[in-house]
């Protein structure tokens, strides 16, 4: 299971670009009381939804058979909702911020498709959309346009939220367009579990830390680094130290060590981290057990 966990995460991590909203698209379910849908109809609905989502800029669709198996084991396919711990696990394993659930009801030549998104961080079910199509004589010509409307309606609220001004964030002119918050979160040195529960996908990925390292000028300023982008904008990353996992030593290296969580898993109980010191201009990526206490800097 541990091996599968790591493999699944790596597959999705390689697929995802840093600035995309990531959607895990499930195989459609057949509504209770509906006539039985054929495997072809289920695959066609999922395929057309995938194409419709993929046409929308800044959205990435994750569709893997392993995701269906994993979510079904978690009870998601049966209920449409999951507990907090399960939802967090799904988010970590897939890299997705949302899960798309669709249901088909079939009566004669009529297909009624209902779809909605589940926010992985909050569990909120949002953006529900519906479409009817007639498939007389097995003519599915209306299916692509119906799925296109479904995708458009489901993504409209997310798109609106993304247009809201990113107050407190700095544009460093990075290739991905990622914005970095101007200050660390006021939560001290925090474990990975608590950090992910609080901040979810706003925690930088391993790739976002690498991009920051490779595309900015780093200058040591007594107790941290001034990180300046190519556009002249900058942020400051303090060296707030780190907390020992068992708290025997407590906080160490304050003022000389900067250690930050990434949201990218190393294995089932470790995540990649980003660390630096005054004599270490080329800040490095390592990994730490989730029970350790590190700093948090968020991105958009």
Overview of this structure, please?
It is a single chain. A hairpin with a 2-residue loop joins strand 4 (98-107) and strand 5. This protein folds into 2 domains: 2-162, 3-Layer(aba) Sandwich (Rossmann fold); 169-289, no CATH class. The longest helix is centred in the middle third of the chain and has 20 residues, at 143-162. It has 8 helices and 16 strands. It is an alpha+beta fold and 300 residues long.
Principal-axes shape call: elongated
Which architecture of the largest domain does the CATH hierarchy give at level 2? 3-Layer(aba) Sandwich
Question: How many DSSP-defined strands?
Answer: 16
Mean pLDDT: 81
CATH top level of the largest domain? Alpha Beta
- End-to-end separation: 32 Å
Q: Give the helix proportion (percent range).
A: 25-40%
Number of domains: 2
- Spans of at least 5 consecutive residues whose pLDDT stays below 50 are 1-18
Instruction: Examine the coordinates and then state which fold CATH places here, giving the name of the CATH topology of the largest domain.
Output: Rossmann fold
Rg of Cα set: 22 Å
Percent strand equals 25-35%
Question: What characterizes the major β-sheet?
Answer: 6 strands, mixed
| CATH superfamily caption of the largest domain | TolB, N-terminal domain
Structure annotation, total helices:
8
Q: What quaternary form is this?
A: single chain
Backbone structural class:
alpha+beta
Helix and strand element order: HEEHEHHHEEEHEEHHEEEEEEEE
């Amino acid at each position: 299971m541990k091996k599968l966990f790591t493999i699944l995460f790596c597959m999705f991590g390689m697929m995802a670009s840093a600035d995309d909203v990531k959607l895990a698209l499930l195989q459609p379910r057949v509504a209770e009381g509906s006539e039985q849908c054929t495997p072809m109809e289920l695959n066609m609905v999922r395929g057309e939804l995938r194409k419709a989502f993929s046409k929308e800029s800044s959205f990435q669709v994750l569709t893997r058979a392993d995701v269906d198996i994993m979510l079904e084991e978690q009870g998601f396919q049966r209920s449409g909702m999951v507990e907090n711990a399960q939802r967090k696990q799904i988010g970590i394993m897939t890299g997705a911020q949302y899960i798309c659930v669709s249901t088909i009801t079939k009566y004669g030549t009529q297909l009624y498709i209902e779809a909605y998104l589940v926010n992985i961080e909050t569990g909120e079910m949002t953006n529900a959309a519906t479409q009817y199509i007639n498939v007389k004589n097995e003519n599915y010509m209306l299916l692509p346009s119906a799925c296109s409307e479904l995708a458009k309606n489901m993504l409209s609220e997310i798109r609106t939220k993304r247009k809201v001004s990113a107050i407190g964030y700095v544009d460093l002119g990075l290739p991905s367009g990622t914005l970095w918050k101007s200050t660390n979160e006021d939560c001290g040195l925090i474990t990975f579990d608590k950090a992910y529960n609080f901040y979810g996908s706003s925690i930088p990925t391993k790739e976002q830390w690498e991009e920051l390292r490779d595309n900015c000028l780093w200058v040591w300023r007594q107790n941290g680094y001034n990180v300046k982008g190519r556009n002249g904008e900058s942020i400051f990353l303090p060296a707030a130290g780190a907390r020992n996992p068992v708290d025997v030593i407590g906080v160490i290296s304050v003022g000389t060590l900067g250690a930050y969580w990434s949201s990218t898993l190393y294995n089932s109980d470790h995540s990649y981290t980003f660390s630096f010191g005054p004599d270490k201009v080329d800040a490095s990526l390592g990994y730490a057990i989730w029970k350790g206490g590190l700093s948090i800097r968020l991105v958009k």
